[in-house]
Amino acid sequence: MFLINATRGWPFSGKLLSNVRELRRAERRGGCAVGCDHDRTADDRLPWESDGRYGGWGGHAFYDTEPGAERTPVVFVHGNQRDACDFEQHADFFRKRGYRGDELWAITFGRGSPTHEEMAAQLDTFVEHVRDETGTDSVALVGHSLGVTGIRFWLHERNRYEWVDTVVGLAGANHGTVLSSWCADAGMTDGVYRTSQFLRADYETLEDHPLATLNADETPGEIEYYTIRGTGDPLFWGCEESPELAGATNVVLDTDHDGVRTDRQAVARIFRWISGHHPYDISQQVAISG
To answer: Most buried of 18, 64, 157, 168 (most Cβ within 10 A)?
Structure first.
């Protein structure tokens, strides 16, 4: 009721309420938009045991490909009330262009709406395992929505900048959202709203706020940063440029919050930024596959 009253009359109210309803539906499905058969913390699609802390998929055994990584492995990081299923099509897109199983990974956080501390702890273990399994020093990270600030918080808290060479942030609330401020002020800080206090847009007015700490240097380390935001994303009403990062390559697409992840242009840009090749260049596809 609070969100209905607070947003009545503004342009994206219908889209926002639709997104909130979808969050609730995903929560009832255990935090999966498609309602898959896998428990969140199942590790049978990973080549190591997660001890019930997180789930996900990846590796040569999962994809039935040759072992080894010739390219920087990619780790996909989902958003609020989502899981690794969000990036299955992205992995297929990469595989069709020469990527091996050991170069494609996705984490599912233990809770659909994890705290940033939980994301940092689980990402740290997950990426460490990927590095060990593949024998590579660094990974590329692709995050959507809550996963974007989760990645940034992990990098800062664990000082893992040397573990990463590329970060792609899709519709991340890097400078908070007005809606999160409203939710936090209304006491909506649990369940699907667990991160509203962290992602409030007025974070700079609060003493020692973690988002202010992250944004003191928005693109630290020897990392290539990229962001995409959508023109029709209701999450960023009143703060349209929140997903952008100073020092990053920032792109705007005519799409909504999920479209920033699934749009054909977005997927093509993600591939190009990470691989260094155009996804529809046939000569390059032959070169990287051969």
So the answer is: 168
